[in-house]
Design goal:
11 strands; 289 residues; globular; Rossmann fold
């Protein structure tokens, strides 16, 4: 099943103020308690609660850089690997950015007539939310804070995606339908190793994957884990976009970054190294992905 955009995901949404269901009438979305939210002309919807934060959301430049880098296909093997691990919708991506990974998942899921190929993209950045609207017709895009209660009803999501994004295990468990799954992508310590030191990128904690499993212990069961690994031949503009789209962009002076990138070879082979972990809300039949 595939339904269009925001209208398709409307039955999944909950008011950020009172948690009641939401309906849409023309350009306004509201709940029975009278809370009202305007749909942006670009097609996304802001559902921020009174305590929501958006200061952690990506800037317009970060989103543009992400669009350039992902659009060049360098992370396509990762997107395809994530898509292969999703078997049921609706699919919610937390920290969805431009909607690149969610679109890949929905494209594959739509090939199954029995699948619920609806996608809900949630991000704290309004720039990202605008971009996600156009990533795939079945995506509904929402601005919301990943560290607050998400504006989503209980037990309505078939799969949750978290790709290099923050996540609240308690909220994820609340959202998952019976039998639902969570697919999480986390960087390995050698991810981007060839440029990390020279460009002053943030380091990756070697215990990241283990802490992820601990965060879901007693809530969900780990049913599979493996790595996506390859060498990416990147030009200087590719490296520039890669750095500007990530969290290191907040800590680097643009002039110093430009100087460091200019000193790189015309083409640099950079490691993509990402761990994919899959958690299930029920006992798995076996441990395979």
């Amino acid at each position: 099943m595939s339904r269009s955009g925001l209208d398709g995901v409307m039955p999944l949404l909950a008011c950020p103020h009172c948690s009641q269901g939401m309906t849409r009438l023309d350009g306004v979305v509201g709940c029975p308690a009278g809370h009202r939210f305007d749909v942006a002309r670009q097609g996304h919807l802001s559902l921020l609660g009174s305590r929501s934060r958006t200061d952690t959301g990506d800037s317009a430049d970060m989103v543009a850089a992400r669009g350039d880098f992902l659009g060049a296909g360098h992370y396509r093997p990762l997107a395809d690997a994530i898509a292969r691990r999703v078997t049921a919708g609706p699919v919610l991506e937390i920290g969805a950015g431009t909607g690149y990974y969610l679109a890949a998942v929905l494209q594959r899921l739509a090939a199954d007539p029995a699948a619920d190929a609806r996608g809900l993209a949630i991000d704290a950045s309004r720039y990202a939310a605008r971009r996600a609207v156009g990533a795939a017709p079945a995506i509904g895009s929402i601005v919301a804070d990943a560290w607050s209660r998400l504006p989503v009803r209980d037990a309505v999501v078939g799969t949750v995606l978290s790709v290099f994004a923050p996540r609240d295990p308690g909220e994820i468990v609340r959202l998952l339908a019976p039998g639902g799954r969570v697919v999480v992508a986390t960087p390995e310590p050698d991810h981007l190793a060839e440029i990390r030191t020279d460009l002053g990128l943030l380091t990756v904690d070697p215990g990241k994957v283990e802490r992820l499993a601990d965060s879901f212990a007693g809530r969900l069961r780990l049913v599979g884990r493996d790595d996506v690994r390859r060498l990416m031949p990147l030009s200087r503009p590719d490296v520039d976009a890669l750095v500007r789209m990530g969290p290191s962009a907040r800590h680097l002076a643009p002039d110093r970054l430009a100087e460091a990138i200019a000193a790189l070879p015309e083409k640099t082979f950079v490691t993509l190294a990402v761990s994919l972990s899959v958690f299930a809300a029920d006992d798995p039949v076996d441990g395979r992905l």
